[in-house]
Amino acid sequence: MTDFKTILQHKDLKATHQRLVILEELEKAKHIDIDKLYNLVISSCPTLSKATLYRNLNELVSKDIITEVKVANQKNMYETTKLPHIHLICKKCGSIEDEVIDTTFLLNEVSKHRNFQIEASSISLSGICEKCLTKV
User: Fold this and answer.
1) Apex 65 CA angle, 63 and 67, nearest 5
2) What backbone torsions phi and psi does residue 52 show, to the nearest 5 degrees?
């Protein structure tokens, strides 16, 4: 399990019980929307409001501890920040899988071609996952 207490301290954030629970649930879930996350977190933090959860998520995103994954026609999802990767999004079941792949070459090519300084990137591919393909 990841040492979130140390990560928070290195990013100049207090390692509160709420933040630690949020991060632990995010790590277990891999990708999760705020409503599902709230339902998981509320059992350990019964006084946590959804507004407080939003504030914590926004702060964790701003410190690059978690990542907000924007998915077309779905609620935004959240995940703990990991190695650079792309998201494979299934159009049938809505699952999101990570594919760790070095995108450095692609980003460098785009940067050179467009004379554009890339500061962050998010790559998502949509299609049909293996589980849904085998159901046919």
Assistant:
1) 100
2) -65, -40
Mind listing the pLDDT tens digit for each residue in 64-120? 999 998 887 788 899 997 788 899 999 999 889 999 988 889 999 999 999 999 988
> What DSSP string describes 65-111?
SEEEE--TTS--EEEE--SSEEEEEETTT--EEEEE---HHHHHHHH
| Integer Cα distance of 61 and 68 in angstroms | 7
Distances (CA, A) of 30 to 25, 26, 62, 93, 106: 8, 6, 19, 16, 25
The three-class DSSP label of residue 133 is helix
| pTM over the 0.85 mark | no
Would you tell me how many other CB atoms lie within 10 Å of the CB of residue 42? 15
CATH number at residue 40: 1.10.10.10
Which amino acid is residue 119, in one-letter code?
Answer: E
**Tally of CB atoms within 10 A around 123:** 13
| Domain with 106 in it | 85-135
User: 115 and 72 in one domain?
Assistant: no
36 and 98 part of one domain: no
